[in-house]
TrEMBL record:
Annotated region (Disordered), positions in chain: 1-20
PANTHER family associated with the record: NUCLEOLAR COMPLEX PROTEIN 4, NUCLEOLAR COMPLEX PROTEIN 4 HOMOLOG
Domain annotation CCAAT-binding factor: ranges: 301-451
Family indicated by similarity: Belongs to the CBF/MAK21 family.
One GO BP: ribosome biogenesis
Protein name, per record: CCAAT-binding factor domain-containing protein
InterPro entries reported in the protein's UniProt record: CCAAT-binding_factor, Noc4
Residue ranges with Polar residues bias: 1-13
Family annotation (Pfam families): CBF
Record organism: Drosophila navojoa
């Protein structure tokens, strides 16, 4: 059977990607599917055999899924299968009748597809999700009532939430469909009824539930695109969807007391990325964010600080200890923090104001300089550039460049106390940035060159830190390799002793035989 024969029988025109995938379907399966599509009346026995292949762990599951998609879209078009929203099979239909048998096999295939959403194979899990969504579109198109198959979408969400391990591949595929406004709205409509009963007793279900919410973006980019999964006749109501979002969040905040740190961190990520811009009363988050900031350390405290900063900007709340908390987030372990880029970003914003006390900003400059001595290469460059920006914003801090002889042989004590929790009391303003002089001897040329600003004239404009936040050490290594070497070390005398030049210093102490 040729590939185009199978495609001509499909209910809708297939995307090139699906056609490419289907090219890997075994010839025997292609022939069986083609015979079924050409049979009249419907050969239900052949349909059973094809569906049963999906239960075989050794079968080509991806190819079978694509074949089943084409078959069932064709059956839906021919009205041989009733949709989930509009059951058309008669109640007295006998199992051997084509309509009833096709319906049974369709429901069985749907269950097998849902079971594959949590598959360890990324390709199989992603394909199962994709086929399910394509069948939803086919049901809506060929339904007599033209209703959106909400029941089918609910079964997909249930399978994703109840997966034993987080279905990363299926979620990544589902994220592509959440950019469709109809999928977005109906998902928010279904989520309140699918929330785990206990976030504490079932943290895995809670994490999966939050992972789905993290895919639902109501941002301007998605709203302006106006994409719909099921045709232009679909409707979307932002105000209604926003009410549903607030309902979902109220359920989350009521259930997250006492959860483990992994779930708590995911709650904050969902809040900052998806929920906060659309909340009806964001000021009610103050207590939750304050408790998260004081009771936890590391990523949770950082995410809570970002939320507080947003409330300070949008709701005009005041938090007197915010700079002290930010200052104490800079410690060596933060280099291994997943959200360290957020920390640099937040610190840059918090320290933008030129009206901050000099002793406070000096403490941040000294803390960054001290950390740069023991940080990974990419972070050292960011902190050196950050210090330079602070000196440009607060010209009074330029006294740190030559305030004392802290780096000289005479001065052996640094008045800066790095163990002091209060940045104002750290004594940073009486110190100097001798750490940057030391960094000029760094083994990595890019770090050494970045630190040389301390002995030259300061630049006229600030450095853009955003371009550095995603830089990795491998990128720095690649850049160094690509540079042209201007000087080459060459041996001017032919070696005679194991590649050692004559009269080399090594030969004065050892005799090499």
């Amino acid at each position: 059977m040729k590939q185009n024969n199978l495609e001509n029988k499909s209910a809708n025109k297939q995307a090139p990607e699906l056609a490419a995938k289907r090219a890997n379907v075994p010839a025997a399966l292609q022939q069986k599917a083609n015979d079924f599509l050409n049979s009249n009346p419907v050969n239900t026995k052949a349909l059973k055999q094809i569906v049963n292949l999906l239960e075989n762990p050794d079968s080509n599951a991806v190819g079978i899924m694509y074949v089943l998609e084409v078959i069932f879209r064709n059956l839906l078009k021919r009205k041989l299968i009733s949709t989930a929203e509009n059951k058309t099979c008669k109640s007295n239909a006998k199992p051997q009748e084509p309509n009833a048998t096709c319906q049974i096999q369709y429901n069985k295939a749907w269950s097998l597809l849902l079971a594959n959403l949590g598959n360890a194979s990324k390709e199989e899990a992603g394909t199962a999700l994709k086929v399910c969504m394509q069948l939803i579109a086919a049901e809506a198109k060929h339904s007599r009532s033209k209703d959106w198959p909400v029941t089918r979408l609910r079964s997909i969400l249930e399978a994703l939430i109840n997966a034993e391990a987080t279905p990363t591949a299926a979620l990544a595929e589902f994220a592509k469909f959440t950019r469709c406004l109809d999928v977005l709205q109906f998902t928010y409509q279904l989520l309140p009824g699918l929330a785990p009963k206990s976030y504490v007793d079932t943290p895995n279900l809670a994490f999966n539930y939050l992972a789905i919410i993290n895919l639902l973006d109501l941002g301007k980019t998605v709203l302006n695109d106006k994409q719909f999964h099921i045709g232009p006749e679909s409707t979307f109501d932002y105000d209604r969807t926003r009410q549903l979002l607030n309902k979902v969040w109220n359920g989350i905040i009521a259930s997250c007391n006492g959860v483990d740190e992994k779930v708590h961190r995911q709650v904050l990520v969902v809040l900052l990325e998806r929920i906060l811009p659309h909340l009806k009363n964001p000021i009610l988050l103050t207590d939750f964010l304050m408790d998260s900031l004081h009771q936890f350390d590391g990523p949770i405290a950082l995410l809570a600080l970002q939320g507080i900063f947003t409330l300070m900007q949008k709701q005009n709340i005041t938090y007197p200890d915010v700079y002290q908390k930010l200052y104490n987030m800079f410690y060596p372990r933060m280099f291994y923090n997943k959200y360290k880029a957020r920390l640099f970003y937040l610190a840059d914003i918090f320290l933008t104001s030129t009206h901050l006390p000099e002793n406070l900003v000096a403490a941040f400059a000294k803390r960054l300089a001290r950390l740069a001595l023991k940080s990974p290469t990419e972070d050292a460059i960011i902190m050196i550039r950050f210090i330079c920006n602070l000196l440009l914003r607060h010209t009074g801090l330029q006294r740190l460049i030559c305030a004392t002889g802290a780096a000289s042989a005479v001065e052996i004590a640094d008045p800066y106390d790095e163990t002091e929790l209060d940045p104002v009391k750290s004594g940073a303003l009486q110190s100097s940035l001798w750490e940057l002089v030391l960094l000029q001897k760094h083994a990595v040329p890019e770090v050494a060159n970045a630190a040389k600003f301390i002995t030259k004239s300061l630049p006229m404009v600030e450095f853009d830190l955003s371009s550095l936040l995603e830089t990795k050490e491998c990128n720095i290594f690649d850049d160094e390799v690509k540079k042209e070497v201007k000087q080459f070390t060459m041996a001017y005398e032919r070696p005679t002793n194991f590649a050692l030049p004559q009269y080399d210093i090594v030969t004065k102490y050892w005799d090499i035989l």
